[in-house]
Prior knowledge:
By secondary structure, this protein is an alpha/beta fold. The protein has four helices and nine strands; from the N terminus they run E-E-H-H-E-E-H-E-E-E-E-H-E. It starts with 18 loop residues before the first strand and ends in a 47-residue tail after the last strand.
Amino acid sequence: MSTDRPEDTGNPAERANDEVIDVRRGMFGVSGTGDTSGYGRLVREVSLPGGTPPPYGGYFDDIVAALRAALAGPDFDAEFDTAVDKVVVFRDELTLHVRREHLPAVAQALRDAPALRFELCLGVSGVHYPHDTGRELHAVYHLMSITHNRRIRVEVSAPDADPHIPSLYRVYPTTDWHERETYDFFGIQFVGHPSLTRITMPDDWRGHPQRKDYPLGGIPVEYKGARIPPPDERRAYS
C-alpha cells in the first residue's frame, strides 16, 4: 500500500477555483465600534478552497476510487457524484465535502470498505461562516485509517435556518461528546444523537459562544459582579 502524500497545492494558480464568501475589513471584522486593534484599514477576502480536479496525487486517488466503488455496491443506496459535493486537496490534505443527507452512508463506507478502513474518528470541529449563504454552519470530521495509515477529512454543511446534520454516533461512537461540544458552541443539531445536551455551557445558556454573530462582550460573569464591556466601551490604545 502507498502512504506517499501529494505536495501542497496552495499556490495561486491552483487556487483559481476558490469561492470568495466575504470581504473582511479590520483585524477581526468588527463593525460599528471603535477600532482598538490598530489594524482597522486591513482589507482581505475570505475564501474557501474550491473543488480540485483529478488526479489528486498520492494515495488520494486510491481513496476516491475506493469510495466510489463502495457506494456503487449493493450495501449503500448512494452514488458518489450524488453524495459528494466536491473533493478538495489543499495544504496536503484531502477533504470530502459530503451532502448532509448522505453523510451516514459515506461514513459507513469509509469505515467498512476493505480498501478504506477509516476505523477511527479523531473528532468533530464546527465552523460558522455567516456570509456563506445557505451553508453557514459546517461540521468537519477528522478520520484516520489505522490499517492503511492514512488520514482524511469529511466536511458537511447546513443552512443557519435549518441547522440539522445526521449524527455519526452509530457509525463512530467516539463522536458522542465531540458532537455535543459542537452543538454547544455552534448550535448544530445532530439528528439521532442519543443525548444532545450542552457539555460546557450551563443548560440555560442563551446562544452558542463560538458563532461569529455571538457578542464579543457585555456578558455578565459570576465573579464579584464583574462584567465584560462590549467593544465600543473598552479603552482604546491608539
